[in-house]
Amino acid sequence: MTESKIALVTGGSRGLGRDMAINLALKGIDVVITYHTNKPAAEEVVTEIEKLGRSGKAFQLDSSDVKTFEGFFAQLSTYLKEEKGVETFDFLINNAGTGIYTPFLETSEEQFDEMANIHLKGVYFLSQKAVPLLSDGGRIINISSGLARFSFPNSSAYAAMKGGVEVFTRYLAKELGPRRITANVVAPGAIATDFGGGQTRDNEQRRNLISSVTALGRVGEAEDIGGVVAFLCTEDARWINGQRIEVSGGIFL
Ligand code: NDP
Prior knowledge:
This protein is an alpha/beta fold. It has a single domain (6-188, 225-247), classed as Rossmann fold (3-Layer(aba) Sandwich), CATH 3.40.50.720. It contains 8 helices and 7 strands; from the N terminus they run βαβαβαβαβαβαααβ. α5 (156-176) links the parallel β5 (134-143) and β6 (182-188). α1 (15-26) packs across α8, α4 (109-130) runs parallel beside α5 and α6 (195-202) crosses α7. The longest helix has 22 residues, at 109-130.
């Protein structure tokens, strides 16, 4: 039997999800991460979690493919029972995602569907399938984006889905309240990861532009985000519900 709380972080192999997993472990939480194709990176994160004295586990998941979710949760359930001695987990962090930068007039139906599947439909149905395995008093944290509040060229399809996730989160908070499950959004500003081809990390012009419209005068790093998600999984955050927390250094204030 384990007494630690358990978190599930989708897309925990790289970028923001990796930092969330490590910060959760630092708070004494056991962590299950998912990866899409990058198993070695996921295993490296599991090793980091274990070095912090917590248990870690990585499962493959395509969070844009709803029909695979039942199989994924069957695997997770077996893991929880057989290796953790529990039936449920405590925190669901819907983080996995990809980005495209395409002008509205050039966005194809395929690109729109790709964004819808990973950022909205996937999050909706992954949450639906997760809730029976989530403990009463558990937490759901959905990762949105600053782009759902302000407009930046070439992100219309992506940002529209993140806007949908923000509305969805308020419904989750309302409908899961009777089970004391909270649901909140963390909306990062532009963060220097592999996301969107690594443009915020590698494109100097983009970095300068973002820095110039950010009160704290720089682009974000993954390490600016994970601790906020981990905080939302602590007892101190128990009364935060149905909220959107932007973590952007104050962009476009
Ligand atoms: P990264 O590209 O660094 O990491 C993406 C993660 O998602 C990886 O773990 C990847 O797995 C996983 N992933 C990608 N595609 C799929 C899929 N189809 N199914 C399951 N998992 C998948 O991105 P970030 O860490 O930057 O982004 C994480 C989240 O934060 C996303 O939801 C993004 O929209 C959001 N966000 C990012 C911002 C930024 O500027 N970086 C700003 C605001 C929000 P694998 O390693 O196997 O490929």
